[in-house]
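Each field is listed here:
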Amino acid sequence: MLLRTNIMALEPDQALIHMVTDVISESHLSYLRFSGLYPSSWRVARMGKSHSKPSWALIWTHCVAVLISALAVVSLTDYTMYFIKDIAKMEFFRFMTFTLRLALTEQTVSIFVIFIWKRREISELLLDMSRILTWMEKRYSLRLRRIRNVSALLAFIWIGFWLGVHVIGYITFQIQEDLSTLFGFTRQARFLSLVGAQVPAYVDDIVGGATLLINTHTELVAATFVYSIIALMITGFTHVLQDLQKVAILPSEKEQVIAVQKACRLYLRFRTLTAKFNKCFALLFAIFFSRDVWSFLVVYAVALRIDKLQGPEESQHMFEYRKKKDFDHGRHDIIVGSIGLGNAALKHLLCLYCHITVRDIVMVLEELEDKIESQDVQAEVTEMLSKIQSCSGAISAGGVHITTESAMAVLGMLASYAVIIYQTRDAALGDQEYAKKTDLPQLAEMIRGLMQNTSTSDIKF
């Protein structure tokens, strides 16, 4: 039996460990601690105590992660200086992919800062959820245990799958050429151009791959952590919905009143949990949301990117090499963007399902008002309806609740963007076809003649 009747007989830290593992499985929690996103010292979770400092191991873990992320930003200084010097001629699609890499790095730093800043609130959220789940386990012990275990299993599968895709994509499309020959593996490459350092290519590849990998890993670990909490909140609202659906078939009026009262109490508890969850992770979801939108923009932009024409002083060999390099980088950027899109799809589906479940609760309560003639039951139903707001059960992303209305509005904006980019691509392709069919030297001669104030008769076509 999962109900821990002797929990208070344990040591304080051990009791807190057991209470937190009521929310997420012990293996998942250990992985969070290993990743540096949850303190190894359980004293931070004590309610009403001043022991809110994280352990030194956690602090050093964050420092190393932030340092590696900063190296990833500095290693892209070549592109930064290029854009700053000639921002008027910035290529749109290249700029999009560049900012996606910076957004991933900045997101990693933001995740660590938020988890340090909100560490006490997160611990209190887990403890409050543990108390509610312990109370629920009298009726739903097997279901809650299955949800915890399945959530942990799916989290590890999700993290492992996307990390594997990322590593394969990085090796295949980013450093395959460096690994093909000994010269390519040891050649001098530009790295940390801010200080003008020259390092072997393998150092650049290893550091670049490690920074991208740790950024992706941090994103996935933080995402799966909040997913598991949302899944449990969905379970709570689903239990409320199921209890209300059984009210109409209960034999006596007294049982109906008691059932509605119990459902209302459980709903209020999970509504409070949702409010605390939004207080802890609203800023994190706002960062996730901006990354989700940018991932869509980048993937669509890279998919519709137009290859540059061969330059007048560019050999055919260099032209083919540049096209292949741009293609490989584009494929890798699509992989990184797809990771963001995968997280976005799962996150928004869970958030919408949580909000839709609360809407279903409202529909069931309205049906009960019409079907049941008992005044006492109707009074309880009306009171419960008065406590449900339009944003109840919705996850907040920086002041904007993720509901079906907001999701449709964002999809409309992204669809408009896709149409504009597609039309722009058609226009650019038309310009390219015109340039291919026209003799560029003759056009240059014509422009030169016009600038020299010659007559049109002197211009030869």
User: Anything to note?
Assistant: Strands lie at 188-190, 198-200, 395-397, 400-402. The chain is about 75% helix and 5% strand. Confidence is low (pLDDT under 50) at residues 1-16, 41-54, 192-196, 454-461. Residues 7-402 form one domain.
